[in-house]
## 1
Amino acid sequence: MVGDMMDYLYNLDLNDSEILDMVKLNDHIAQMSSEEVITYIYILVDVGCTQKQIHDIITANPFYFSRDDIDVRKFLRRLMAFDDIDVPEVLEGNPWLLNKDAFEIDDYLEENRDKGLSDKELSDKEILENFIFNCI
């Protein structure tokens, strides 16, 4: 099973060192089936990430593989609801965002709504950029 998973990671142009680093940080990866790995990769493909972006995202954030795939999909749907957002670019630059939940965006928006921002202002790219900045 591990061999199949490793082959799939090699197909993403990961080298031995990168894979070992990922497994050292998140030993759950070594126990995953190739089907599980593919599920997480295709979540990123579905939002438009390129192979290089996927490589960069998963090597920077191997904990992504420990997230519940349904929670990740909810978060990405919520992220894509913002106007003029290039989700693959946002994730490539901020791979740790994949450790967040959709409710965290909603909580952030609610805090800003309480500060008097309108719904139009809350759908602005600047609000998302502030959310990202606050997550770092």
## 2
Amino acid sequence: MKLYLTTDETKTVQGYNNIIVSNGSCKLDGIFKNSCDEIIVDNCLDCINNSLDFLKILSSLIRLNGVIKIYGIDLRNICLSYINGEFGLTEMRKLILDKHDIFSISDIFNVVKEVNLEVLKCELNGPSFDIQCLRKN
């Protein structure tokens, strides 16, 4: 099984179970532990209440040798970009307004380490990050 989580109701990925994140929650009914080959979290983790705890739940859904791909924004880089004048207050508000939770990439790494996932890729591009992890055990 493959999951695609997003806040954009118009965005779907063929071959994936597309799940919409709304009102701070995400319904994972009928999805069992160790059942997913791949999970894509597309810029929506920060739209979920208690997002880092939710990430632990998602990691339990990944089967052996399965991958989770997490795309989002990094609080530290948002602040640095704002302080360095890379964008203004209007852009900063757009990035953080309406978020249920906000965190830095180090917070995600702490969860990844706690649930024994192996980081395959980690890229920062301005305020955005792309993390891909593998479940080895």
